Amino acid sequence: MRVLGDEYMKSEFRAHRNIENPIHIVGFLKEWQMYAQQVEGDSWLGDKMDKERIDKMSDQQLGQLYELMQAIQKQGREDPDGEA
Hints:
Layout: H1 2-15, H2 22-38, H3 51-55, H4 59-78
């Protein structure tokens, strides 16, 4: 899972590299900081996203979330023991 997460993170940072709107920059960095804190341990396992947060997502963000979910499920089928 770590490899998948690292690749996704690199892709997201590249995609937001040239963003100029300060509100988007602050929101992006805030979410990544919260993500980093959550993945420090295993306390995030089994957590669900708040409906309020999902409702605020754009169609593009929902598409990315769906693609991420599919990639995680595929990884789980290929490596059911979670050793990657």
